[in-house]
């Protein structure tokens, strides 16, 4: 059965951390919906990749999705700067309800705002690990970590492992 995966993203995302998982998800027969500040706007990655926002965060309902993807780059930090905290609130639905959640590189920064990391095992890019630890997570240095519904990876070098586990979670 095809599943629908929300992607929360804004400008300065790490290009391949959006495009590679999106391709893997779609090749596995699932749908990707890009969620950002404004529907029909364009977000641009650090290296020039472009994506069109399908739905605004104001109109997005997390219960409509079977998974959440959070690419890295500077996008997660920008999303955390949302004055209403909408992206952290959106992500909290997935962590709280054990819905598959995929975050790579700087992506796990958004998960800090869920307040649901206590006792969870995660990984991320080196300069985010201390923040995850301070949020209660056990942090390890592995290419991919699966802790129940949360799948995390460190860098673009880990995309093969990350994408494999995304597809495994969606196909369960």
Task: Write a concise synopsis of the structure shown.
Pfam families: DJ-1_PfpI (PF01965). This protein is 33% helix and 23% strand.
Radius of gyration: 14 Å
CATH architecture label name: 3-Layer(aba) Sandwich
What is the H/E string?
EHEEEEEHHEHEHEEEH
Strand content: 15-25%
SS summary, helix count: 6
Q: Identify the CATH class.
A: Alpha Beta
Task: From the structure above, extract its key features.
alpha/beta, 172 residues, globular, 7-stranded mixed β-sheet, Rossmann fold, two-stranded antiparallel sheet
Can you describe what's shown?
Residues 3-169 form the DJ-1/PfpI domain. By secondary structure, the chain is α/β, with parallel strands linked by helices. It has one domain (4-171): Class I glutamine amidotransferase (GATase) domain (Rossmann fold, 3-Layer(aba) Sandwich), CATH 3.40.50. The chain contains six helices and eleven strands. It has helices at 15-27, 75-80, 86-96, 108-112, 126-134, 159-171; strands spanning 4-8, 31-36, 42-44, 50-52, 55-56, 67-70, 101-104, 121-122, 138-139, 144-147, 150-153. The strands form three sheets. It has a seven-stranded mixed beta sheet, sandwiched between helices. α1 (15-27) packs parallel to α6.
List the helices and strands and how they pair.
Layout: E1 4-8, H1 15-27, E2 31-36, E3 42-44, E4 50-52, E5 55-56, E6 67-70, H2 75-80, H3 86-96, E7 101-104, H4 108-112, E8 121-122, H5 126-134, E9 138-139, E10 144-147, E11 150-153, H6 159-171
Parallel strand pairs: 1-2, 1-6, 2-5, 6-7, 7-11, 8-9
Antiparallel strand pairs: 3-4, 10-11
Keywords: Glutamine amidotransferase, Transferase
Organism: Staphylococcus gallinarum
Protein name: Type 1 glutamine amidotransferase
């Amino acid at each position: 059965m095809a599943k629908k995966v929300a992607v929360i993203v804004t400008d300065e995302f790490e290009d391949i951390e959006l495009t590679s998982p999106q391709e893997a998800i779609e090749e596995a027969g699932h749908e990707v919906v890009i969620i950002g500040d404004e529907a029909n706007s364009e977000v641009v990655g650090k290296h020039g990749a472009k994506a069109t926002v399908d739905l605004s965060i104001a109109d997005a309902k997390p219960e409509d999705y079977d998974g959440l993807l959070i690419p890295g780059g500077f996008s997660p930090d920008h999303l955390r700067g949302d004055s209403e905290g909408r992206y952290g609130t959106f992500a909290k639905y997935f962590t709280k309800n054990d819905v598959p959640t995929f975050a790579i590189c700087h992506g796990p920064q958004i998960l800090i705002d869920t307040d649901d990391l206590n006792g969870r095992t995660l990984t991320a890019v080196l300069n985010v690990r201390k923040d995850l630890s301070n949020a209660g997570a056990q942090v390890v240095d592995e290419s991919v970590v699966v802790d129940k519904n949360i799948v995390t990876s460190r860098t673009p070098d880990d995309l093969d492992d990350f994408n494999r586990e995304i597809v495994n979670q969606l196909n369960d």
